[in-house]
């Protein structure tokens, strides 16, 4: 059924967008520059408009209903297009702008990249800041399409690149790490020893290959004796430092963690490729001069090794 838009207060859509992104009434009100009662009143009107509860209160915050998530995909893209259509902005000036850029990046990039990136941003403009959302590794493409972030940095591209852009910005070798007092690994690590030892590996889905499998290429599956699957490289380093296990990780994170956890690292005794690091962003943001500036900033700092070395 066709809706008469004159009967709908389109200002409610910006409030709806903020509520979905923040999933918290107070934070949404602060972001919008409105009072909390005014946002609460707008939510009631939104519920009447869409004939749905839209949000369910929980201990974790305001959880969007399935219908709210479906609506939000279209609303957010529409708001972005409207903003681009009426924008009269010129070139983005980092020295005078106030803007928070949002990334989707995992703990690896948080640890090795965000310090240098933030330091460089501070030199370019005091009003610039970063916010990182740890991505759902299975669905960060959808998060970008919903415009929940300016960009994602990951070791692989999503299968569905519809409405997304992507480019390779750096590459990373893999290394093996073990504790300094490992009883069977001294000054070198060969392939036989690598596969004989127990391993700690990152958790992955049945559909996603490990970093090692990606580096080997093709449909190769690596049969290691994995004794523990874990969520982060930092946790991997901690477990490896207390056990006679091996971890496999990018060289930059190994160089960062090895001194703190008393690890030693070795080149992988396998014929492998380096791991590509990909920058991805929503095509809908290409007309935003601030976003274009930020993408170039990430490229430049990748070339200067702040993202990969």
TrEMBL record:
InterPro entries: LysR-type_TF (IPR050389), LysR_HTH_N (IPR000847), LysR_subst-bd (IPR005119), WH-like_DNA-bd_sf (IPR036388), WH_DNA-bd_sf (IPR036390), YidZ_PBP2 (IPR037402). Keywords: DNA-binding, Transcription, Transcription regulation. SUPFAM superfamilies: Periplasmic binding protein-like II, Winged helix' DNA-binding domain. Residues 8-65 form the HTH lysR-type domain. It holds the Pfam family LysR_substrate. GO terms for molecular function: DNA binding; DNA-binding transcription factor activity. Gene3D superfamilies: Periplasmic binding protein-like II, Winged helix-like DNA-binding domain superfamily/Winged helix DNA-binding domain. Belongs to the LysR transcriptional regulatory family. This is LysR family transcriptional regulator. It comes from Spongiibacter nanhainus.
